[in-house]
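Researcher: Sequence recovery benchmark, item below. Answer with residues only.
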């Protein structure tokens, strides 16, 4: 633990008169931009406004201490003064407010004050409060990995850069805040946390949010974390605090937390009215401490500026904001069809022939399991690309390296990552805390800085704490920043039932929850060979990928294959006809594929019915062309899947078939899936709940007989 209790201690750098006047100007400029946006909102010329009023002093100070395009920035919506000080212009901010095509923050795709600027290293901000914290930790961790992985020749690091991340006091109630502090302290990462404490989270006061009412008091026991509560409405004192915090981070002593005490003289946003919950006396007291009033008066009192100079400064700010508003209002809006751009990488297409070497495997060795071929793929890819890092719960052989001489090694609960740490070292293969959001959030930050995280969520059943990061952050990064930023991480997760004892919390499926997310590729191989080829494509593509590994299929003898070699790839969106037929089509994936094959064989032998079985392999994108081609031949289709019957992944396929292939159908689209329950522990329950061979065979008979 490191603490500072004297915020007035001499600063490491002295602010000149020009510095003080510029800080004042930026504070006034920030406030005037807020006021201009409020005016434009009331004129219905913009559509949303949230201000940084009352926070200007500490943010202008932070902007002077930190280095644009050198340090990295994860701000939040009140950080207008910081972004101005770093170099964002008033015009760029108002382009965002009007949703202009030339808006550098998002190209008109996000609300105003959702800061992002590629040239300044301001990473695209989203709306959920606190999700940026773990990404900032991952961004700082990228420095650590680049510095320690000797095989990376081109290291895009400075050596003493830091990562700034800011939040309001309400966000300190989020679990991800504490996860971020824990990992940043544990790894001694150069993260500067700025908590802008205006005592309210919309209407909820700090004493309801925080035990004891003081976040900095709670945080002081984190080891190697510098904690300083001396910043706030005084930009000079704030500058001194931030200089110390920044130097602490730059010297790699650990992270720093600056707890800034500020005011919020305006309502939370224009959708809020603070009069409803703040009494008049409290609002009057805040108004007296408004930094845009007190700091100019202080400069005059101390002889730094005259009243005339301050007044001239205000006029110049007014003129600058007026010109910026005119330019923004005259700027073209985005073309409607541009909304379709940047959902996925415009440069790397994992559905293309570039990723299709399936017809030329270079087989070696005896047939082996899905676990072994996944492991082989990871070894090949890590040898090929030193930027790949693998982490998650239990993925290392042993966190305590000294034990590797005495133990066989864990390598994941299913052994998929076994031996990777021994071969590639602990800087590239390492264990994470038992915290799924931590894993995915850090992966986003690492990927943003050019590393290639391949992370593991141990069980699909426990992926839900990470869903916020997956849905709102990982999948949206490229689109929401209009291609300024991307996060092409691979998230491996074990999936599915048929385990005899998996029960409610080790048998979950639910691919549809993720295939419904634009920007996220989702695959689910059913054989060892496909798993190897699809994982290689996932690692080499430029989009985020959710890679579903069915636990039941990990060591089945029927899906074994020899190692196909280090360049074997299967493109996304390419289904496989695993059995040809002429009477009906079965569309399926995952563990249901083998059951469909067994059912098809039974029908052929007993009933003379010829079934075509399609293994989708890739769930998003979907190879609908193969489905349609099969239907033109068979005119009947059964969609079989392990999700619950209602609202499952197969329901969308059935709807699409009905919509686009109706003319070819001679029977209704039929579905077989799990019951609309959870998976039970007792074998009899599990067998009843999950689709079995007899369920598929019966449905196929009914379909053929229609």
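Model:
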């Amino acid at each position: 633990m490191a603490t500072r209790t004297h915020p007035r201690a001499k600063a490491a750098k002295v602010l000149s008169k020009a510095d003080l006047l510029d800080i004042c100007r930026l504070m006034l400029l920030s406030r005037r931009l807020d006021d201009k946006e409020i005016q434009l909102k009331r004129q219905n010329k913009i559509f949303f406004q949230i201000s940084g009023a009352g926070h200007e002093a500490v943010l202008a100070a932070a902007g002077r201490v930190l280095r644009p395009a050198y340090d990295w920035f994860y701000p939040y919506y009140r950080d207008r003064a910081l972004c101005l000080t770093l170099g964002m212009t008033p015009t760029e901010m108002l382009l965002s407010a009007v949703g202009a095509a030339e808006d550098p923050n998002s190209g008109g795709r996000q609300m105003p004050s959702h800061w992002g600027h590629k040239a300044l290293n301001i990473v695209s901000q989203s709306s959920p409060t606190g999700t940026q914290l773990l990404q900032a930790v991952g961004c700082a961790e990228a420095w650590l990995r680049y510095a320690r992985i000797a095989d990376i020749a081109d290291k895009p690091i400075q050596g003493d850069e830091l990562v700034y991340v800011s939040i309001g006091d309400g966000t300190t109630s989020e679990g991800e805040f504490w996860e971020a502090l824990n990992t940043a302290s544990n790894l001694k990462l150069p993260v500067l946390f700025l908590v802008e404490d205006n005592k309210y989270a919309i209407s909820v006061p700090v004493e309801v949010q925080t035990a004891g009412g003081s976040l900095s008091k709670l945080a002081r026991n984190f080891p190697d974390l510098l904690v300083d509560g001396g910043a706030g409405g005084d930009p000079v004192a704030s500058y001194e605090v931030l200089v110390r915090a920044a130097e602490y981070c730059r010297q790699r002593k650990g992270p720093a937390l600056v707890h800034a005490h500020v005011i919020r003289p305006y309502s939370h946003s224009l959708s809020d009215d603070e009069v409803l919950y703040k009494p008049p006396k409290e609002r009057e007291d805040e108004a007296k401490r408004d930094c845009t009033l007190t700091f100019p008066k202080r400069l005059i009192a101390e002889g730094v500026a005259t009243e005339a100079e301050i007044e001239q400064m205000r006029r110049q700010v007014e003129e600058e904001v007026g010109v910026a508003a005119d330019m923004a209002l005259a700027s073209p809006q985005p073309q409607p069809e541009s909304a379709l751009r940047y959902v996925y990488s415009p440069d790397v297409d994992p559905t293309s022939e570039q990723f299709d070497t399936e017809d030329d495997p270079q087989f070696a060795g005896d047939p082996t399991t899905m676990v072994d071929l996944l492991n082989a793929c990871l070894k090949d890819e890590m040898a090929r690309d030193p930027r790949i890092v693998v982490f998650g719960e239990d993925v290392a052989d042993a966190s305590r390296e000294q034990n590797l001489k005495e133990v066989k090694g864990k390598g994941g609960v299913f052994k998929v990552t076994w031996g990777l740490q021994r071969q590639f070292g602990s800087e590239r293969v390492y264990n994470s805390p038992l915290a799924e959001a931590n894993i995915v959030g850090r992966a986003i930050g690492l990927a943003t800085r050019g590393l290639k995280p391949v992370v593991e969520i141990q069980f699909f059943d426990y992926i839900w704490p990470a869903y916020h990061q997956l849905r709102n952050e990982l999948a949206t990064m490229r689109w929401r920043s209009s291609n300024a930023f991307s996060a092409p991480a691979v998230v491996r997760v074990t999936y599915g039932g048929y385990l005899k004892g998996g029960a409610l919390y080790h048998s979950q499926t639910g691919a549809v929850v993720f295939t419904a997310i634009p920007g996220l590729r989702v695959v689910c191989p059913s054989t060892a060979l496909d798993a190897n080829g699809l994982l290689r494509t996932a690692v080499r593509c430029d989009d985020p990928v959710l890679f579903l590994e069915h636990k039941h299929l990990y060591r089945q003898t029927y899906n074994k294959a020899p190692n196909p070699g280090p360049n074997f790839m299967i493109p996304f969106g390419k289904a496989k006809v695993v059995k040809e037929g002429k009477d009906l089509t079965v569309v399926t994936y995952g563990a249901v594929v083998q059951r469909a094959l067994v059912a098809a064989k039974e029908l052929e032998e007993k009933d003379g019915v010829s079934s075509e079985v399609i293994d989708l392999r890739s769930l998003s994108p979907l190879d609908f062309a193969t489905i349609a081609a099969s239907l033109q031949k068979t005119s009947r289709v059964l969609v079989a899947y392990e999700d619950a019957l209602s609202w499952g992944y197969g329901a969308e396929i059935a709807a699409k078939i009905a919509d686009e292939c109706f003319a070819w159908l001679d029977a209704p689209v039929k579905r077989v899936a799990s019951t609309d329950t959870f998976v039970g522990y007792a074998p009899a329950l599990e067998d009843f709940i999950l689709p079995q061979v007899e369920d598929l065979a019966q449905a196929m008979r009914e379909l053929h007989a229609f």
